[in-house]
Amino acid sequence: MIRVLLADDQTLVRASFAMLVDSAPDMRVVGQAANGREAVELARSARADLVVMDVRMPELDGIGATRLIAADEDLAGVKVLVLTTYDTDEHVMQALRAGASGFVVKDIRPAELLAAIRTVAAGEALLSPGPTSRLIARALALPETPATGGPDGLSDREREVLALVARGLNNTEIAETLGLSPLTAKTHVSRIMGKLAARDRAQLVIIAYESGLVRPGA
């Protein structure tokens, strides 16, 4: 059972999401917050597995709340799924830097939101990979930034896999691209996360761009 905390300053939005989440047999809402400060407090007291976090909220916004959750050792297992009105909102990049595991736009279909919650809760993938990668590319580096070998400590194969993760490919797509089995691709991703001390694939994308392994527009 996935324990979900909803953080949004609009009561109607929270109520709608709560009805949707509670309708799923494998998840339930354990709290609702109207601002980021409440979200952080409820993440602790309600023992949530995942927070669906709006970006723009009073008192403490979603970015600040995400940063506090990610920095709290007692909340190490809590994932944050960011909500944004537009997939080009640069606040999303700030949220990913703060520790969010992915994002979805508010006009997402109900079934897609439930799937997104399951995916992020499982730590499997970064949501909306295409728009996310473009956003990260714009926010992290300029087009003329030179390519480098990427982060230290990775094998050549692991660098290849990391570059594909940064492009938004899932394990199956990585396997097909490199001629590997899906299990082998998954193992490579897990080892890369361990070597780079990354919480999830969202952090791997950021690391790939920051290290110069992947260049914007390339």
| CATH architecture heading of the largest domain | 3-Layer(aba) Sandwich
Number of alpha- plus pi-helical segments? 10
Low-confidence stretches: 141-146
How many domain units? 2
User: Regarding quaternary structure, how should these chains be classified?
Assistant: single chain
Largest sheet, in brief, is: 5 strands, parallel
Distance between the termini: 41 Å
Provide the gyration radius in Å.
17 Å
- The strand line-up of the biggest sheet is 2-1-3-4-5
Structural class label: alpha/beta
Classified by CATH, the class of the largest domain is Alpha Beta
> CATH superfamily assignment of the largest domain?
Response regulator
Number of strands: 5
Give the CATH topology of the largest domain.
Answer: Rossmann fold
Q: What is the residue-averaged pLDDT?
A: 84
InterPro entries: CheY-like_superfamily (IPR011006), NreC/VraR/RcsB-like_REC (IPR058245), Sig_transdc_resp-reg_C-effctor (IPR016032), Sig_transdc_resp-reg_receiver (IPR001789), Tscrpt_reg_LuxR_C (IPR000792), WalR-like (IPR039420)
GO molecular function: DNA binding
Organism: Streptomyces virginiae
Protein name: DNA-binding response regulator
Would you write up a description of this structure?
By secondary structure, this protein is an alpha/beta fold. The protein has 2 domains: 2-123, Rossmann fold, CATH 3.40.50.2300; 138-210, Winged helix-like DNA-binding domain superfamily/Winged helix DNA-binding domain (Arc Repressor Mutant, subunit A). Helix content is 50%, strand content 13%. It has helices spanning 11-23, 36-45, 62-71, 91-98, 110-121, 129-140, 156-166, 171-178, 182-196, 201-210; strands spanning 2-7, 27-33, 50-54, 79-84, 102-105. Strand 4 (79-84), helix 4 (91-98) and strand 5 (102-105) form a beta-alpha-beta unit. Helix 6 packs parallel to helix 10, helix 7 packs across helix 9 and helix 8 packs across helix 9 (182-196). The radius of gyration is 17 Å and the shape is globular. The model is unreliable at 141-146 (pLDDT under 50).
